[in-house]
Amino acid sequence: MRRVFLFALAGTLACAGRPPPEDFVLRVGVIEPMGEVGPHADAGGAALAGDLLFEPLATPRPGGAASKFLRRWERLGPRRWRLDLEPGVRFNDGTPVAAGDVADAVRAQGMTVLSTTPATVEVEARGAYPVEVDLAFATVARRTATGWLGTGAFAVESQEPHRVVLRRVQPAPGRIARVELVGCASSREAFARLLRGELNGMASLDRALAELLDGVPGLQVVRGTAPSALAAWLSPRLPAEERRRIAAAIPVAEIAAAARAEPCCSEPQPALPLVPPGRPLRIGYPRYLPEQPRAAIALRRALGARGGEVVALDLATWVRASANFDLVVAPMLVRPPGVEARYFETGGQFNVLGQSDPAYDAALAAGDERAQEEELRRAPQAVVILRRERLAALDARIQDPVLGDWGIFERLPEWKVAP
After folding, report:
1. Mean per-residue pLDDT for 171-200?
2. pTM of the model as a whole
């Protein structure tokens, strides 16, 4: 009966008056707080806006990285690189992107700028991992008196605490002209407004909500693969041998199925070693992905007598609070290749639990990937549970939309809208 109601409601909305494609507006519900739009926003509506306003120096793609700004990047030493700039790239107000803008982008990622010319920027990378990792996070932007300038297809038209409006810089008939990011208190509120026709887009759908929308007239569910995975992080206060034995005993397939709210498993799973004896292990998780509490509870169950309390951590303070837990269920990037070093290297940007392994650091500095893998097997720092799936609900008039390999909406400027 509920499904019939959803179809009837969506069918009624589909018959309502619609703007022509050249005036098409995509109104996307996002979970607040919205955040401040800028090149370094990493959550909420501000991060979605960033997909359309700003571009990284090198965008991760299957099989490599693509760059709008660099002709090439050349290694001059273990951590020293020369970036050859592509001429003619402009911000969306028409001003040229200069070597200084590229230098600012890499400095923001902790790289040291050694020299610049109008055509090159020479840098020293912070870590020994592939420079493509730093370039993927280095966003080209310029701050002005009225806000941030980017090089993307859209610019900010207006920003309020609960709504951000983006307009396409250059007319593109048959494509999305404006994007409105509308703040919602919860995913349930966003979903309800989607069904009422107040919104025609919703990013980061839960699988259960996505299943309700499959086949509903006027809307489509779009799936993609995220560059991140859900992982169980092992505290450095646990000895290396204990971490190894705990990691070996974790039933990854079972926990992944629980995280997805699916049954497990279609095939018999191999027998695993027993969890080593010891005190109960406290498990924490930051509360912003629906898979995390399910995975954390399944992990506690899998640890048996060693499964301790499971605690939801506040999103604003979870990094600091993680030091008080033995395991933390949280996302980690698995693309671009080499990005895991940002989590495992001593002092790495994403090394939130403070792990430090001199043998791993030495293998990383030497560029010895086999030695890195062997050290992580000997003294694991995290266990990957599942590769995350991206789910979005979009207006059915958008033809064959593809979610981005990096930012979820990075491919949106290419999407076509049916007449």
Report:
1. 94
2. 0.82
